[in-house]
């Protein structure tokens, strides 16, 4: 604890530049060391993984090509067996006539040569008849070769391999018989030839594949990182390799032991391991019980990594030098602006929203200063706006209350009811009384300001029913609200001021009976409610006066329409409101845009859906 306190006290007395050096210099050195070690490790691992992946892909290509060569040899053997049967059918008495024997030998050699021209993977073909006669695709050694073949035991091995249709592969080896080039190792395929009709053995067919056919694909495709490929057989001898000096030689004992141990414990198709500074990859070749081995020098692979480590050390030394100069510059460029910004922030915390910080630079400090100035100014604007909106909302609420209890409408309606009773028009008086009661019950309801469109249409319907009784010769009306739009939220008494304006300022001055239609629909993702009348209409100047809330001649009309527009903006946003279209002597269309149910900005719980 005492040591920690001493370090803190010492650190607190340092200047900003010294603090920067004391903190970042060790961090920079440690970071560079970690970066060098980590980059060396990751880069080396990445190289090894990439090399392993490339080797695996190349190995699969080599194995596929090798398998193709062996299958081609087997296919060639099958075709040659068929052709040999046909020759024996053409010369059934070949053993009896010497001339026929000579002709048969020429035809057999020609047939074998033709077949080999089709299967170029096979180097040579030899057919040994049941009497020991040798027919080859190349110039044979005569009786010495016949004796050599008999002494090699290969004929007996093929006969013991099984019945017709089976092939027997002899391992890679050099020999003086059954080969066109005694100096080249060959892989030999032996197959019994049986008379198809009688089942009598006709002889033995041998096909030879040179090692060069297999090693032609063992070269690496990446010259920058040479990789040695070679095949080893079950005896751990090299049977195919680009390096001819290693052919038919045993592999290193450590590698042979490692492969044998892995064969006993794991039969995976491919695996890799590190051995004596090399990356060794082993891929199994099942058809011949071989392994394809690839050896890559890790030193060559990681040569670039060492160069990167040296480059990192050099860059680190340069960074240390520049960090000393940067610490002094940073203390001058950062400390002073931060102190000014801190003082201004403290003033804001105390409640003073007037401080402004001079942004003298265009770097992050200058950006922070500009953002701070903008934030303070924005806070002042928001506070003023909130105060103004609260004031406006209160004014609209008061205007709504006054509009909800208009005495002249109540008095005129009661007078109408009285006159209807005097005239014994009791049913009309009853309907008027019911409509008046429904209207004021919903208007004076103490629920929330927002109601659903269905309720607003019902309020408007009650109002129009009363007005139609009062002015039966002035207008008729129609309300069409689709059922799927009945739940749309709308501020209370949004339609009543509009239809009132249509009656008093549009239809009463018309001189003939007019029409009011209220309908709703969906356009552009919004609910549009239209109030249409065929009254006297109005010009653009009057429309602008109404929408601005100022009209000296018709103050009531202007306040009512303007109040609806402002309340729609207040509750739903500026993108919703009123649109007025009118043509003089033709009529007026007032259109309210409302949010669709589920997209409104106020919660559904704020919508009054029932008047109980």
From TrEMBL:
Q: Which UniProt keywords apply?
A: Cell membrane, Kinase, Membrane, Phosphoprotein, Transferase
**Entry annotated with the keyword Membrane:** yes
Location comes to: Cell membrane
Q: Does the keyword DNA damage apply?
A: no
Looking up SUPFAM superfamilies in the UniProt record yields: ATPase domain of HSP90 chaperone/DNA topoisomerase II/histidine kinase (SSF55874), HAMP domain-like (SSF158472)
Using the record's annotation, list all stretches that form the HAMP domain.
Answer: 332-384
Q: Which residues form a coiled coil?
A: none
Q: How does it sit in the membrane?
A: Multi-pass membrane protein
Entry GO terms, CC: plasma membrane
List the Gene Ontology MF annotations in alphabetical order. phosphorelay sensor kinase activity
Protein name, per record: Histidine kinase
Q: Which organism is it from?
A: Paenibacillus jilunlii
């Amino acid at each position: 604890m005492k040591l920690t306190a001493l370090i803190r006290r010492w650190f607190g007395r340092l200047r900003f530049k010294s603090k920067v050096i004391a903190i970042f210099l060790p961090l920079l050195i440690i970071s560079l060391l970690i970066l060098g070690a980590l980059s060396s490790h990751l880069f080396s691992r990445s190289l090894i993984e990439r090399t392993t992946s490339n080797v695996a892909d190349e190995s699969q290509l080599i194995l596929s090509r090798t398998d193709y060569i062996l299958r081609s040899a087997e296919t060639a053997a099958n075709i040659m067996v068929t052709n040999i049967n046909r020759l024996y059918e053409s010369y059934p008495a070949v053993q009896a006539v010497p001339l026929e024997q000579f002709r048969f030998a020429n035809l057999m050699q020609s047939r074998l040569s033709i077949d080999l021209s089709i299967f170029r993977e096979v180097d040579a073909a030899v057919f040994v008849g049941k009497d020991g006669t040798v027919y080859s695709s190349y110039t044979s050694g005569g009786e010495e070769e016949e004796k050599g073949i008999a002494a090699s035991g290969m004929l007996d091995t093929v006969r013991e391999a099984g019945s017709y249709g089976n092939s027997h592969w002899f391992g890679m080896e050099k020999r003086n018989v059954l080969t066109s080039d005694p100096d080249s190792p060959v892989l030999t395929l032996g197959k019994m030839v049986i008379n198809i009709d009688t089942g009598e053995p006709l002889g033995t067919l041998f096909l030879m594949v040179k090692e060069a056919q297999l090693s032609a694909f063992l070269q690496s495709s990446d010259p920058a990182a040479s990789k040695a490929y070679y095949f080893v057989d079950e005896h751990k001898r090299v049977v195919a390799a680009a390096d001819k000096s290693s052919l038919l030689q045993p592999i290193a004992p450590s590698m042979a032991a490692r492969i044998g141990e892995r064969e006993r414990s794991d039969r995976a198709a491919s695996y890799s391991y590190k051995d004596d500074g090399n990356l060794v990859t082993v891929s199994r070749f099942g058809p011949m019980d071989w392994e394809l081995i690839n050896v890559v020098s890790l030193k060559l692979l990681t040569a670039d990594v060492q160069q990167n480590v040296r480059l990192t050390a050099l860059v680190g030394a340069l960074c240390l030098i520049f960090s000393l100069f940067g610490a002094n510059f940073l203390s001058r460029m950062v400390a002073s602006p931060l102190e000014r910004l801190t003082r201004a922030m403290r003033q804001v915390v105390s409640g003073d929203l007037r401080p402004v910080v001079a942004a003298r630079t265009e770097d992050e400090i200058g950006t922070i200063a500009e953002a701070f100035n903008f934030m303070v100014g924005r806070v002042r604007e928001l506070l003023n706006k909130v105060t103004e909106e609260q004031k406006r909302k209160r004014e609209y609420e008061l205007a709504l209350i006054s509009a909800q209890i208009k005495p002249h409408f109540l008095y005129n309606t009661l007078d109408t009811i009285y006159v209807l009773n005097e005239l014994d028009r009791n049913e009309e008086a009853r309907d008027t009384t019911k409509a008046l009661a429904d209207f004021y019950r919903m208007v004076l309801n103490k629920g929330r300001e927002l109601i659903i469109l269905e309720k607003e249409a019902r309020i408007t319907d009650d109002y129009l029913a009363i007005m139609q009784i009062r002015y039966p010769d002035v207008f008729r009306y129609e309300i069409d609200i689709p059922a799927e739009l009945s739940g749309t939220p709308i501020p209370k008494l949004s339609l009543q001021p509009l239809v009132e304006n249509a009656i008093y300022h549009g239809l009463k001055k018309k001189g003939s009976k007019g029409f009011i239609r209220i309908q709703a629909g969906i356009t552009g993702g919004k609910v549009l409610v239209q109030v249409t009348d065929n009254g006297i209409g109005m010009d653009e100047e009057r429309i602008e006066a109404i929408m601005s809330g100022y009209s000296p001649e018709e103050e009531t009309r202007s306040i009512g329409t303007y109040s609806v527009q402002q309340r729609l903006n207040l509750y739903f946003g500026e993108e919703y409101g009123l649109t007025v279209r009118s043509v003089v002597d033709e009529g007026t269309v007032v259109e309210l845009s409302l949010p669709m149910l589920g997209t409104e900005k106020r919660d559904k719980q704020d919508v009054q859906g029932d008047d109980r």
